[in-house]
Amino acid sequence: MSGWRQSARLSAAKAQKGASTSKVAQAGAKGGTSDKHAGNKESISDDNLDEPEDEDEEMDSGSDVEYGKPPPGKKQKLDNSGQRGILPRSTDKNKNENECLLVKMPVNILFEIFGLCPPQDLLSLSCASHSLRTHLLSQTDPSRGIWKAAREYAQGPPVGPGMTESQWARLIFGKPWCQSCGAPNVQRVDFRLQRRACTTCLKENLVVTSEFKSTFPDIEPSILDLLRHTNIGANGRASKSRWYWHEDVEDMVRELESIERGDHVRVRGALKKEAFIAGRKKLVKAISEHAKICGEWKLTAAHRRQEEKNELSRQRYNDLKAKFIELGYVEADINSIKGQKVAEQPTPLTERDWERVRSPLEKTIEAAKSKRLYFERKAVVDKRRNVAEGLYNKYRRSIVPSQWRSLPPLWSFLAKPVFKDILEAADDLEVTELHFQPALDSLPAMVLSLQTGRSAHLLELIQTPPTTPAQADAEPGEILPSPPHPYSLDSALAVFVCEQKCKAATPPGSSGSPIPAYVGHEAAAAHHCRGSYYSAIHGHYQTVFQLSKGGVLAASALLKSVGFDDKATCAQMDTLDARFVCQVCPARKVSGKLTYWVYPWRAAITHFAHTHQTKPCVPQWELLDPARTELVKGRETDSTLSWACNHCAQHAKQCETRAKVVQHVESIHAISNPSVAVDFFRLVDLDPIPATLHIPKEVMPPPPPLQDQYNCLQCAGEKPSARARLFILKGVKTHLKEKHKVDWPMEGRDWRKVPKT
User: Where is the F-box domain (predicted)?
Assistant: First the structure.
């Protein structure tokens, strides 16, 4: 059949099929059938638009189209003025320029070319010209072989039952358009319905079994056995229900009516109808079985496409890596671009693409290069630092262990030029212990210099006179607090804190809480902020002290409770070895009894400076009597890992408890009754858990009496702060004379005594 005749035949079939559809819709409307889809526009599926009539006949089992009528004539075109007339034809020159030379090739050559094309290209060629369409969509063996070879080459699933190779190719490999409304980007194909439809069309056209009777009241439900169905609704989720396509129901009704209207006798017609029904049931079953195969193919195809994308991504990354290697970068730095979208997207790398992505990727590689060089350099420096650390530990073991407390850490020396020059030498220099020998020889002098500088810094804090907090409205005679202040490094008031707000270093495995305040020169000299070589060369973690105001106040109150003045020394308090109870802290109820924490004098000061620093308060202490002091000393246990032997370097790396160190001194060094600071010492300042003591409430002494204080009655009409101002007797009289010009102040009229509470 010629191309013109086939096209005309297809047009006539479509026109008559549309007219027949309208009649069936009108008949259904009169009979009460739902006309929801009667006015829908003709489907733009492959069955109606893209295939000739021969293929449509293969898809359907019968047709009610009559071919006796000629196709409708074309309307005459209008010219620019809107009048019918003969439009000028294009010249032969333009016609020759626009004519496709591919259609002039011999058929055998065309079929050789078609045999090398994938399904997508065959679909595009079938829409390129009428001649190519005729060749590709003809139901000849060569044409079917071309489509089959293309499908197998693309690893597509077998052809669906009731469909041709070209129809199946358009459904699987065609553009993702909805076959009903033409909506784009419709990726899901329902293989049970053999249709690609958008969500909107699915909602409008799918009919569930439970609603079939209400949608088609005049149609027997037995017709559903002849229709394709799916178990996936418009929501995209599978279920046990069955959905049918609305137009399939109408088409099947027309198909059955066409068979019944045949010119054959009743018996022959009945046989034909029975054969048709049996064939349809067999076809529906085959479609359902085929859908399972397509579902497995879909998963396999998705996995294959992902593998292809991964391969493209790997190839793109390898191409980028090759180009950056040509620029002089190393693979370790280039690996930093892994994971970036522009480096691993599944598209080939072109020169234009390379120019676009080079700059941002090169910045990432440069950053990785800088980071790599930094860590390579750090590894070299750390290796040299380990050599210096070994020499420093040898020096540390060579001195008396009690000197370890004030020995500065290694990192404080590494910033010195004698160490720094070796650590920062070129990478090709293999540093050994001999390189550090000059630095090791000068180590005692550097230790003495650092210790002297620490003592000078602490002495400067001591020699700085205390500043009395000024008040804007202070007057002569007004009570202003004069804070206590230490006047020597050995003073018991010498309480320091680190400006870095750090605590004493806690060795691994040690128990107890680090002391936040340092009482006395020796405790301050033993503190060193945590740091490293890198922090030292940049000036970080430099230990800077300041006097602890709360600690000095607590120490002053402590000295007064034992009868000492502010000039008492740490040695005097150590000799006294008294125990104290903080009266600011409330009692703890243990087993129905009120118990109090009991502290040695240093622990009492650090307790107050640490615990009561957030809420300023006046320190108040109770000195225990000798009997209770001995009782508490018997209960005290020091389980902190902070003690070391003073005769060997056994505990240079790991301190032990006091009991274990005493046992070590007695067993190893054969010293009975070892003494503190002579045979063993506390290397790390860790505050042990204080002992507790039950003190009956009636035994607790009352708070110390307050000094008599007075108010000025002449200030009664002023602001509340002026009315509540406190004076001593001499001060209130001076205040009345200076401010209120009262030369002879009298009690009850000008001033009054504040009652004690």
Answer: 99-150
Q: For residues 644 and 298, what is the distance between their CA atoms, to the nearest angstrom?
A: 74
Phi/psi of residue 581, each to 5°? Answer: -120, 130
| C-beta atoms surrounding 163 within 10 Å | 21
Report residue 720 CA to chain centroid gap. 56
Q: Check residue 80 and give its pLDDT.
A: 52
pLDDT-based confidence at 713, cuts 50/70/90?
confident
Mean pLDDT of 727-733: 84
- Binning pLDDT at 50, 70 and 90, where does residue 439 land? very high
Other C-beta atoms closer than 10 Å to the C-beta of 404 total 19
User: Full-prediction pTM beyond 0.85?
Assistant: no
Alpha helices in 174-220 (DSSP H): 199-205, 212-215
For residues 682 and 645, the answer to whether their CB atoms sit within 8 Å is no
Please determine, for residue 38, whether its predicted confidence score (pLDDT) is greater than 70. no
Q: Return the DSSP state at 600.
A: E
Q: Strand (E) positions, 585-701?
A: 588-590, 593-600, 621-623, 643-645, 680-682, 686-687, 691-694
Confidence label for 57 from pLDDT (cuts 50, 70 and 90): very low
Statement: residue 585 has pLDDT above 60: yes
| Long-range residue pairs from 280-286, CB within 8 A, at least 24 positions apart, any chain | 280/61, 280/225, 280/226, 280/252, 281/225, 281/226, 283/161, 283/162, 284/225, 284/226, 284/227, 284/228, 284/229, 286/161, 286/162
In terms of DSSP bridges, do strands 579-582 and 593-600 run parallel, antiparallel, or are they unpaired? antiparallel
In the chain, where the domains are located: 710-753
β-pairing, 579-582 vs 588-590, is unpaired
Q: Which of 521, 317, 494 is nearest to 405 (CA)?
A: 521
Q: Where in 508-614 does DSSP place strands (E)?
A: 513-514, 518-519, 545-547, 579-582, 588-590, 593-600
Q: Which amino acid is at 638?
A: D
What average pLDDT score do residues 545-564 get? 90
Task: Name the 3-class secondary structure at 238.
Answer: strand
* 754 vs 191: CA distance, rounded Å: 100
Strand partners, 195: 190
Are the beta carbons of 455 and 521 closer than 8 angstroms? yes
- Give tens-digit pLDDT for 346-378: 999 999 999 999 999 999 999 999 999 999 999
- Distant-in-sequence, close-in-space partners of 177: CB < 8 Å, separation ≥ 6: 44, 183, 184, 186, 196
Comparing 74 with 244, which gets the higher pLDDT?
244
Contact 657, 639 (CB under 8 A): yes
Average pLDDT over residues 726-738: 85
Asked whether 714 and 750 are in contact (CB, 8 A), the reply is yes
Q: Which residues are registered as beta bridge partners of 569?
A: 491
Residues 268, 279: Cα–Cα separation, whole Å: 16
Q: How far apart are CA 143 and CA 111, in angstroms?
A: 8
> Are the C-beta atoms of 644 and 683 separated by less than 8 Å?
yes
Mean pLDDT, all residues of the chain:
80
d(Cα 446, Cα 281) in Å, to the nearest integer? 102
User: Is residue 25 within 8 Å of 42, Cβ to Cβ?
Assistant: no
| Segment 242-263, tens digit of pLDDT | 999 999 999 999 999 888 887 4
The residue among 704, 708, 756 whose CA lies nearest residue 732 is 708
Residue 73, pLDDT score = 53
